[in-house]
Amino acid sequence: MSSHYPSYLLENAVNEFAKLPGIGRKTALRLVLHLLRQDDVSLENFASAIATLKHDVKYCSCCHNISDSEVCAICSDKSRDASTVCVVENIKEVMAIENTVQFRGLYHVLGGIISPIDGIGPSDIEISSLVDRVKSGEVTEVILALSATMEGDTTNFYIYRKLQPYNVKVSIIARGVAIGDEIEYADEITLGRSIINRTPFDESYKTVSK
Questions:
Q1: What is the mean pLDDT of residues 64-75?
Q2: Per-residue confidence band for 25, with pLDDT thresholds at 50, 70 and 90
Q3: Do 130 and 161 fall within a single domain?
Q4: Residue 105 phi, psi (nearest 5)
Q5: Are residues 131 and 177 in the same domain?
Q6: According to the model, what pLDDT value does residue 184 have?
Q7: Contact 94, 88 (CB under 8 A)
Q8: Does one domain contain both 77 and 162?
Q9: Stretch 110-121: mean pLDDT, rounded?
Q10: Of 3, 7, 83, 185, which is most buried by a Cβ count within 10 Å?
């Protein structure tokens, strides 16, 4: 038994919670003690929700968004504009953009961005499946909506080069989202405007390169 905790079971639970991003040991302890005060049904529901999420959650076969079915609700929605695809890093960006109610196209979730320092290359994220979607001929515009960081810009340029052989417009969200900002933390008005005021990627790249 640890000298800092009255119970090994308590310490073990705190250790697991502390592995979550943004959760320090003090916060982990507070969360564990909160759970201990809950009745058995509430605690079982909590544990069941986590276990069910891990075992039963699916990833959309089309856009790779988290889904309850083989094809997500957005890709299945016939009222959406299937000719326009917005490329994002992960599902948090999908949720952020959906909250703006300014975009009625479809999405493509990369599942990360190119980051050599972290050992993440083009083959580690969903770029080839994006190219395949464009090859099918239904997509006429690809909107790059990655965070304005060095890694995001590197990924944007790589995707742009991969899509150049195809007859598809590649645009990038307006830089209303400041350089270095994460898409998910942008306010809805700014994010919505940045999508509406998107610009052709080649023009954006030429401006940055000058």
A1: 95
A2: very high
A3: yes
A4: -90, -160
A5: yes
A6: 54
A7: yes
A8: yes
A9: 93
A10: 83
